[in-house]
Predict the structure.
Amino acid sequence: MNILLANMPIEFNKRENLEPPLGICYIASMLKKLSGVNIFLRDYEVNLFSEDILGKELEELKIDVIGISFRTASFRSAKEFVKKAKNTGRDIFIAAGGHHATAFPKETLAALNCNAVVVGEGEYTFKELIERLIGGISLEGLKGLVYKSAEKGIIENRVRPPISDIDALPWPARELLNLNEYNVITFLTSRGCPFECIYCDKSISTRKVKFRSAGNIFSEIKHIAGRLNRNRLYIVDDHFFLKKNRTEHILDKIIGEKLSIRWTCQARVDGLSENILKKAKHAGCEQIMYGVETGDQKELEFIRKNATLKDAENALRLTKKAGITARANFMLGFPVSTEESMRNTINFARKLNPDIVRFFAVSPLPNTDLWTHIYGCSRAPGGIKWEDMDFFKPSFDIAGIKREKISLYVSAAYWHVLGKSFLKEISLYFFPNLMKLLYLIVKTGKIRGNISKSFPRSVNLILDNMHQVRGKRLSEAFNFLKKVYKLEKTL
């Protein structure tokens, strides 16, 4: 049996991210245990996509089963992919998985016109699905699967319990991807997050945290650095520093073995000490991404962040002091937001002065309390446009503020925080930065990734502003930026 596992991007042929998808790599590693199975991986964040290319690949590889992984933000591409796969005329079994499919399995079956949906963690469910398809066995009773039956319509099997021992999972089959396409290697040390932020979907990773052992983690890091010859990691855990003793054990092993790796991780702003940040730096940490989210106290309470503005100030100060790049993420346009609260957030971001800053428009995700607060139910309201939920542009109005105004605030935020640095980079420091860029291109043979190293504030500002004007005509974009300019002057 020939199986294609595909990662769906927000938009085809747009290289938004350069991080290998862990989901399909974990599933591929489970399938490698089966005999008579050939596995192919496609990440459409980096692989070109068209109906002709897809049709040719499906025919040449003689694909029998396709598994696609997608999020709410990549719903549009998932729907397009399935349609084009079916247009090839091949009789292919198509299963969908991921956060969105888990939230709305029946709706996903109907909207995508696929054969099945894997609900929750997919490693064991998808492996059993393939075993049954190979053996011609009914899918009835397969835990974690919702599927179409010719005789009975849509069948919703019982939920599969969460995976309790994630050390038992084989390491992701990253070797099935072209790793030269990526700047970093994604890496997972735990699943889940115990906190109760209202915007975070816990339908797959849950609030019960499952930790890999330090030994298992360290062995995989050595495998990546040695066998795969890659030394830059992105640790995708919700909060890498959650279990401090385990984290310190991992850091001590990296330092003790003198592993030459560099890594980025995500963390909360509360509970970090100067000592552990110094140790992280010594172990190769080059960037920490903090979900600050808001600079307004009322909004902070609304989203149940359980951290303070003082925590954020302290975390970024200590991170910079340790010599680690500090990135701060913010969200604009909560249901309780006002123009004053959004201004508070923008000015707080400017006060923090992070090395990298991101402002996202609030987008409610299914299976979150934020979704319920806005839509009042757990189901998808009629007429909702999933393609509007991309985290860049606002997808709903709030009391007294239209989404177009929120979009203006998102763009103005970047100019207010980064504007002066941007002007310095393209004037006073332009030629030194250009020389740095040329040096890095010669050294690495790559342009992408090195531009942001040479002109960090400029890339940060320009790329993120482009999201707000995407799809607008030139005159509309010009008028939008004029309004942004006027708004920024009032902040």
In short: The chain has a mean pLDDT of 92.
